[in-house]
Structures are given as C-alpha cells and as structure tokens.
Amino acid sequence: MSNTKSTKKDKELNTTKNKKETKANTLTKKDIKTQKIKDTIKTEKKIKTDKKIVKDVNQLKQFEEKDDIIKIENKSIQKVKWITFKEIFIAIFVILVFLFFEALYFAINQPRYDNQMRVLHKPIIYLYPEYTIDVKVKLDYDWKIIADLPKYDKEIKWWDVIAYPDSKIIDKSDNKEYSYLFWEWIPSTEISWNFDKWFVVKWSESREFLQDILPKIWLTPKEFNEFIVYWYPIMQKNEYNLVNFSGKQYTDTAPLETIPKYDSLLRVFMVFKAIDKPINISPQTFDKFERKWFTVVEWGWTQVK
Fold first, then answer.
1. Would you say residue 186 lies in a domain?
2. Which of 75, 122, 199, 207 has the fewest CB neighbours in a 10 Å radius?
3. Residue 202: inside a domain, yes or no?
C-alpha cells in the first residue's frame, strides 16, 4: 500500500515536471521567436544607422574636401592679392623715388636751365685777309665762355692764329686747321633785348625765311648755308617765331678786336622768341655792307623767353 502511494506520488511529480518542462520549452520557443524579431529589428536599425553614419561620413568628407578646396582657393586668392599689392607698392615706390631724384636734379641744375635761355649760341667768326697773315682775335667780355674751338686762351684773352684768304685758319697752340673760330657764352647779367622791329615766321617757313633774309644781311652762300642747317630745325619747334637781327646792342655787349685791325666787320646775331599766333609788326631793314681788304664776319643767335 505504501509503495502504491509512493508510485502515484512520483507519477504526479513527473507529470508536473513534464508540464513545467513543456511550458518552459514552449516559452523558450516563443522567446526565441521574439528575440529573433527583436534581433532583426536591431539589425535593420543598425544597418540604417550604419548607412546613415556612412552617409554622414561621406558628407563630412565631402564637406572637408570642399573646405580644403575653399581654403586652398582662399590662400591662392590671398597670395594673388598680396602679389598684386606688392607689385603696386613697388611701382609707386619706384615712381616716387624717380620723381624725388628728378626734382633734386632739377633743383641743383636750375641755374643751368635758366642759362639755356640766356646763352649766346654758336657765334662763329670767319677771317678773310687779303693774303696769309698772323692774326690775334680778342673777345672783350664780362661773361663766361662755355664752349670754344679752337681753345680760347682765357688768360691772355686771345686766339692766336694764321689766317688765309679762303677763311682757313691754323691755330698756333695746336697747329690744327679750322674753318672758323667758334665760341658760346653766358652773359654775367640778363640782357634785355631792345627791338623795335621784328619778323614773324611760321615754323614751316623757317628755312625759306632764312634763305631769303640772310643774303640781304650780306652773308655769302657758304656762310648763310652753315647758319641755316644749324638753326632752322630749332626754329621749327615753335608754332611761330618773332625774329630780330641785333645790331649795336649785341656788338656793345660782346666787343671784338683783331690785330691787325680788320677793315670790314659784319656781325649777324639773330634773336628770336616763340609765339602762339602771328602779330602785326613792322619788318626789320638792313644797311648796306661792303667787304673790302681784311674782312671779319660773325654770326650767332639766342632765344629769349
């Protein structure tokens, strides 16, 4: 009896145990299915997250690349701007330095520029003796000689030469041959040229004017051609010129002597100034000149303001 109860009790326990195991197994399958669903959801979420992360990373990379490009471009632009600014600065600096030294040079040489308007240019002296003779030519002056050929002896104030009838000259100091005596000078004071009569000459008519007027002042073709080829290009630089041939005022300003003394002396000195338009003025006339025996001829010019 006792064994029967024990067996029955064991059966009940086994049955209960089996039910529990079955229930446990049933719960496990359900949980597994649920877990699988959860895992699937997690996996999908993870994939989406990963994709989003990848997308964000790619965007970030793109942004970084763009940012790098922008930085590079900005650096390039800054570099270009800096080079341009630097070049402009250097150019301005060079110009300012040039203007400074130009102003300094002009300030130092201002007297020289002023004197250019006072220079008595290229007086040249022809000597025409009747026969070959020794001649001394003296310039009695209170001014500065700035050019001479042959060299003028400033101590004794003479040219000492051998003169020939055809105007050829041999200078005794260097034993060289010359066609004439050349000199240029600056007066010690400004000369106020007093002229009552002038010629008005248009720039394009300068050559024809000189060809016409110089023979009337008694220059020979050799003399006036040498005058013209030197001076008419200078006159052409002005639209119009007022021209006068100075007489006594010039000879008194620059006295000339010769030993032996000349028999005839002709000194032609042209003074002109630039004007913008023609004016009505009485033309200049000239006295007759005769060449005889020992003749000395001189011509030169100056431009006034």
1. yes
2. 75
3. yes
Range of the domain at 143: 121-303
Residue 154 counted as domain residue: yes
3-state secondary structure the chain: CHHHHHHHHHHHHHHHHHHHHHHHHHHHHHHHHHHHHHHHHHHHHHHHHHHHHHHHHHHHHHHHHHHHHHHHHHHHHHHHHHHHHHHHHHHHHHHHHHHHHHHHHHHHCHHHHHHHCCCEEEEEEEEECCCCEEEEEEECCCEEEEEEECCCECCCCEEEEEECCCCCEEECCCCEEECCEEEEEEECCCCCCCCCCCEEEEHHHHHHHHHHHHHHHCCCHHHHHHHHHHHHHHHCCCCEEEEEEECHHHHHHCCEEEECCCCEEEEEEEEEEEECCCCCCCCCCCCCCCCCCCEEEEEEEEECC
Same domain assignment for residues 246 and 189: yes
Each residue of 37-77: pLDDT tens digit?
666 666 666 655 655 555 555 555 555 555 555 555 555 55
Same domain for 252 and 207, yes or no, is yes
On whether both 197 and 291 belong to a single domain, the answer is: yes
More confident residue, 243 or 191: 243
Look at residue 260 in the predicted model and tell me its pLDDT.
95
Confidence of residue 141 (pLDDT cuts 50, 70, 90): low
User: Does 115 map to a domain?
Assistant: no
Range 110-127 average pLDDT: 59
Asked if 298 and 260 sit in the same domain, the reply is yes
Q: What is the pLDDT of residues 178-229, one digit of tens each?
A: 999 988 877 666 777 776 778 888 888 888 989 999 999 899 999 989 988 8
236 and 127 both lie in a single domain: yes
Mean predicted confidence (pLDDT) in 148-164: 86
How many structural domains does the chain have? 2
Same domain, residue pair 151 and 299: yes
